[in-house]
Amino acid sequence: MAAALTVLVTGGAGYVGSFTVRALQQAGHEVVVFDNLRQGHRSAVCVPLVVGELIDREAVATCFRRWRFDAVIHLAAYTSVRESVTDPNKYVVHNVGGTIVLLEACLRHDVPYLVFSSSSEVYGEARYLPLDEAHPTEPTNPYGATKLQVEHYLRWYDAAYGLRSISLRYFNAAGAALDGSMGEDHRPEEHLIPNAIRGALGLQAFRLTSPVVATPDGTTIRDYVHVLDLAEAHVLALEALRQGHPTDVINLGSGVGYSTRQIIELVQELTGVRFPVERGEARPGEPPIKYASYAKAERVLGWRPRYGIEEIIASAVRWHTRFPHGYPD
User: Fold this and answer.
1) What is this structure's pTM?
2) Which pathway is recorded for this entry (predicted)?
3) Are strands 224-226 and 172-174 parallel, antiparallel or unpaired?
């Protein structure tokens, strides 16, 4: 077994981050979380937690002085496509500017590896399907643009300084711990599956925010990947870097697309509740259809998704049933 590492996880109190922390622990690594708790939850963290903003150089420097990190997994970011369209400056300042501060600290403290949480939003409108890593990158919203800009910086930082990285281009993270003990808790929540489940449980009215698009049922088609599978991929990416893999970008998806209407119907079927569907304000900046090729992830990381869409939704139902109001903080 490879030696344990001390790993900094930025955004480790958030949805994917909290699951990644546990996957790292299960692999035997020591973990520290840096998070501003604006989207994350203190009660989701089971390791040392530093509360701060990545754009705060002194807060980041203090964290790096306190621990000697062998690697960084960088998930901290603002992630709302809708908000990025109305407030792009926030996304540039925090998603790009915060990353630069983090990279400066990595260089100063000789951290050799970084795994970056990127996004399928870097692709924009699909020219062909499934989307592979060679597909042109033409983001249609500022959130995706910030993720792509960081990917560019990471390549340059490797060429100039030898900081190697793997950028993981997630498709739609979904699901919860299989026992319902951890899950998705954004405030406000913009994602389809949790909002549909909350509609089924009578916690809120469900509003359809998919724009009308040219797909068979007129709603957007997306690729959903279980958060447990995503967490595992971060551990595998870190190990690939340790084994000498060069700076790279890798898709994480299931290879299958489901329309918004199909997801609503699956939630209704699995919960047994035919909740009403109201039309809400359409989300801007949304490509009509996206689903991934994960062939490269399988080839480079030995990764493939373990959980299908019904398991994703069923686990999320357990979480929202056990914790209808999310984490207690």
Assistant:
1) 0.96
2) Carbohydrate metabolism; galactose metabolism
3) parallel
Q: Which residues are tagged catalytic?
A: 143
**H or E segment and range at residue 71:** strand 71-74
* CA dist list (Å): 240 to 113, 115, 303: 10, 10, 11
178-to-11, 225, 322 alpha-carbon distances in Å: 22, 14, 12
Pair of tokens at residue 10: 């930025």
> Would you write out the chain's pLDDT as a tens digit for each of its 329 residues?
578 999 999 999 999 999 999 999 999 999 999 999 999 999 999 999 999 999 999 999 999 999 999 999 999 999 999 899 999 999 999 999 999 999 999 999 999 999 999 999 999 999 999 999 999 999 999 999 999 999 999 999 999 999 999 999 999 999 999 999 999 999 888 899 999 999 999 999 999 988 889 899 999 999 999 999 999 999 999 999 999 999 999 999 999 999 999 999 999 999 999 999 988 887 777 788 999 999 999 999 999 999 999 999 999 999 999 999 999 97
Contact 260, 192 (CB under 8 A): yes
User: H-type helices in the chain, by residue range?
Assistant: 15-26, 57-66, 81-86, 88-91, 98-108, 142-161, 192-200, 227-242, 260-271, 295-301, 309-322
Q: Quote the CA–CA distance of 146 and 116 in Å, as a whole number.
A: 12
Q: Which domains does the chain carry?
A: 6-173+225-252 (3.40.50.720), 174-222+255-322 (3.90.25.10)
Please name which of 222, 207, 193, 196 lies closest in space to residue 286, comparing C-alpha atoms.
222
- Give the 3-state secondary structure of residue 225: strand
CB neighbourhood size of 221 (10 A): 24
Alpha carbons within 13 angstroms on the beta-carbon side of residue 266 total: 19
- What is d(CA 258, CA 220) in angstroms, rounded to the nearest whole number? 8
Residues 153-163, buried b or exposed e (16+ Cβ, 10 A)? bbeebbeeeeb
Longest dimension (CA), the chain: 56
